[in-house]
Amino acid sequence: MLRASIKGLLAHKMRLAMTALSVVLGVAFVAGSFVFTDTIDATFNSLFSDVYAGVDATIRPDTDNPGTGEPSIEEGLLADILAVEGVDAAAGSVAGYAQIIDSEGVPIGGQGPPTLGFSWVDLPAVNSLRIAPENGRSPQAPNEVVIDVATSEANALSVGDLIDVQTENGLGEYEIVGLANFGTEDNLAGATLTVFTLDEAQRVFGLEGQFSSIDVIADPGVDQTDLLASLNSAVPSNLEVVSGEQQTQEALDDINEGLGFLGAALLAFAGVAVFVGAFVIQNTFRITVAQRTRELALLRAIGATGRQVTLSVLFEALVVGVFASALGVLAGVGVAGLIKAGMNSVGFGLPEGPLTLEPRTIIVSMLVGVVVTSVAAVLPALKAARIPPVAAMSAPAARVGRRPLRTRAIVGTIVTALGAGLMALGLIVENGSSLAMVGIGAVGVFLGMATLAPLVAVPFSRMISLPFRGITGDLARGNTARQPRRTASTASALMVGVALVAFVSIFAASVKASVTDTLDGAFPADLAFASTNFSVGVSPLALDAVSDLEEVEVVSAVRTGLVTIDDVEMNVVGVEPGTVGAVYNAEPSIPIEDLGSGLLVQSGILEANSWTVGDQIAIDYPSGEIVDTTIVGTYEDQTFANLMISDVTFLAHVGDDISIGFADLAAGVSLDEGVEAVDQALAEFPYIDVNTKSDQVAEAEAAVDQLVALFSGLLGLALVIAVLGIANTLALSIVERTSEIGLLRAVGMHRRQVRKMIRREAVITAVFGAVLGLVIGTTIGFGVISSLEGNGLQKFAIPAGQLVIWLVVAALAGVLAAVGPARKASRLDVLKAISYE
Predict the structure, then answer these.
(1) What is the predicted pLDDT for the residue at 326?
(2) CB-based contacts of 557: which residues, under 8 Å, 6+ apart?
(3) Is the confidence at residue 196, as pLDDT, over 90?
(4) pTM for this prediction
């Protein structure tokens, strides 16, 4: 049996390749996700280990015990540190936000990796920056800076050029005197680096007489544990002492946290690809088992048991799984390289280094491919074992009767209902397993609908094929309706991909509709201005500049942050009670002017926590203080934050960063006049973008469109696998119908008509799968949007145009999938085809 299975595989190399390709694509994304994350971890680990290799200890503000005032270190502490026993040398430095402005006045960087500013450290052992001899020197005067090599190359900047640098304290002009590497790399993960002299850095960062940190080098032979203990006893309680190893690990944790979403997203899309591939694999083995009925029956007739036949089919699946998974792992290395190159092309600046292929990646990826392939082949293998030996005697006996669809209807309904229920539960219940419940529920829905699909395959096929006239249309209609299980199974792979793409499109359309509705209703302000740099908010100086304009009637600052209540992290917004009402309609239960030191709670949050107006709750602020605060009212708006406090309370306990500013224009001032005046007032703050309400809507929609394009592109892999499945099914069905096609040719059908018939079968199958996918995707989208209504998604929108486009794309994909099989069918030798068994 083993030898027969191997010969059977080798005799159908194309079938083997087409089936294996579905597995290869899915496994490649699984392996690629692991290779990418492992590579990032390994390269950054090496980079930061080198950077902190000379640092024995660092003194810095303790963010868990901040005490009072700004998180900084008094400059005079450096002398005390140098006097500590075991300390050989120490150097203080400062850091903050600094953004380079190009010659056109456009900020460089800030939309992804941060824009960082540092002071130059003259102690080489603790300075992570290196300047090659040909790249200039360190800054020595207040008007001199050093920038990183990657930023200079990307923006055609060189030593001797004059640049503007934006800090929170304003705009300044500097000369580039050096180009620095971060350790051995051209920069730090795409961040833009600007380095000043110590005095200038202290001035622009508002840290005169202070340090952000102090790096320490120990005397030779001093134990690090003893050094840390000595330093801890010498520093105030609001400071902490950490080792170089701890800083390396913290830097790695920050990098992994920032890029971890990408690895998780890639694994999710890989799961979709593997799931879709399972439909293709199962369908392929089911068809091949049906085509080999007489062959398998003959094996039974000469003594093979049903168990041996089952194991033979499973062995074939195992071989396909191992072969395809191995190729998938190799392809995954290439996928990881493409991901890394793509991220570098958009400015992330990931360090150079070899791709890392861990044993875990090989094991997990191989297991995924082999298990999925083997499981997908189980039902066809069991079916093969039920073939009676008498089926080998004649063609009529070889026909295996179809089981009624009643059982399938019951099972499909139950599985669909359970999947939908689990999805609903995951959307309603907020806990750590919600996402997993939604994912498992979605898989249940897809499996259930795939099980039910044959029940509607015949009427759907007939309806879809109505536009197809003539003999080729009738034959295509009959061929797809004659095998409803096959048609449904082939269409199910496409159904999953189209359903997910449709869901993403509907979700995006609903988000855009909700944003538009929110901006129209909640923000009556004429203008909004916010930072284009993710690292920094709006400077208070910018707010003052706008407030001084005659064209502006009201300016109001909004600050956002996080607080903790009963161990639950919540969003909080700090507003100016006297002005916020003119620019923001939160629908409060009391006038916001009466907020005082109290707390306004969003009504949904109030209800969810069983709070009432008048209750006192303990708020754990980032400052380390826990303050009992009275709930003085509620508000209805769901988009801003869970909680609202006054700016006075926010500044005292959370921070001073302004997230966004709003301005209402004076009477008689047109929108264009107002924008021009505010733009001029903010000329010293080029990183701040001024927007009208329509601008905000357009920016929000553009951001959503970018995400949709990314998700659709990744989901396109599932659609590619589904198209391969259609091509595979058609190719196998042509083998099965060789004699039939030969007879059609013998009675006068032209090759062109044969090709047209095959193409139409593919279109019917593809459109059937796409329609099912659109129905499922729309249903899931409606459920998800409805469940998130309390979180700001108050509008359900169906992008009809996009969904029609996907339907057309599916039909075209069917035509594309049919090219090879149709060509093969039209070239069959008529006489050989008629005599084929």
Answers:
(1) 92
(2) 538, 540, 543, 576, 647, 658, 660, 661
(3) yes
(4) 0.70
